[in-house]
Structure formats: C-alpha cells, structure tokens
Design a protein that fits this description.
Helix content is 82%, strand content 0%. With 40 residues, the protein is mainly α. The mean pLDDT is 77. Helix 1 packs antiparallel against helix 2. It has one domain. It is flat, with a radius of gyration of 11 Å.
Length: 40
C-alpha cells in the first residue's frame, strides 16, 4: 500500500507537466500516510 503510494508520488512528481492540483493532492496524501504511520 505505502509502496504503491510512493510509486504514485514519484510518477507524479517526475512528470514535468503535473498540475498544481495533482501536486497538492500528492502532498496531502503523503502527509496523511505519514500521520497514519505515526498513529500505528
């Protein structure tokens, strides 16, 4: 699950034409995943 997230994050960030919305979504998703890790 987390590896898939990291792969998705990498694919989005490496795309030079990534939109601001995609970037924000990835950052928020990554932040939420990090929070979940801390909770567990």
């Amino acid at each position: 699950m987390v590896l898939k997230m990291k792969a998705a994050t990498a694919s989005v960030t490496t795309r030079s034409h990534a939109t601001l919305r995609e970037t924000v979504f990835v950052v928020i998703t990554d932040y939420r995943v990090s929070c979940e890790k801390v909770m567990k």
